[in-house]
Amino acid sequence: MYIYYIISLIVIGIDQFTKWLVVKNMDYGEEITIIDQFFSLTSHRNTGAAWGILEGQMIFFYIITLVVVIGIIVYMQRYAKGNRGLAIALSLLLGGAIGNFIDRLFRKEVVDFFDFVIFGYDFPIFNIADSALVVGVFCIIIATIMDELKKGKGKK
Known about the structure:
Elements: H1 2-25, E1 31-35, E2 39-46, H2 58-79, H3 84-107, E3 110-118, E4 121-122, H4 128-155
Antiparallel strand pairs: 1-2, 2-3, 3-4
Helix pairs in contact: 1-3, 2-3, 3-4
């Protein structure tokens, strides 16, 4: 089970390192084009959740994140021991949640920097922790579907 906590620590480490690089080397609002009209690094800050919702509600985010982190750890210990896919997904969620929590706790805002324009839509700017959260949720969906398919085959 420890390997999954190590995965979470790796996510947190990469997330915090990349955010530090952005804060240290870019001015707020500065944009570095990587692929013209598609991908750039843009130094941005967010005091809310995804798409800036609930902006400035730090106490709310502290409480919710602590509840979520505790829930993920409990769920990991109880239900993910025999399911590698679920354990990896939960470790990504844990790392992502803690990565953004660290920002909120120490910076009072989350550092975002990945900026994509996809088919003309300027996607909200995000970071490594956000990516880990999205991939973790996607992996949970896949793990759940796979588990249900296995259960369905066992009934025939």
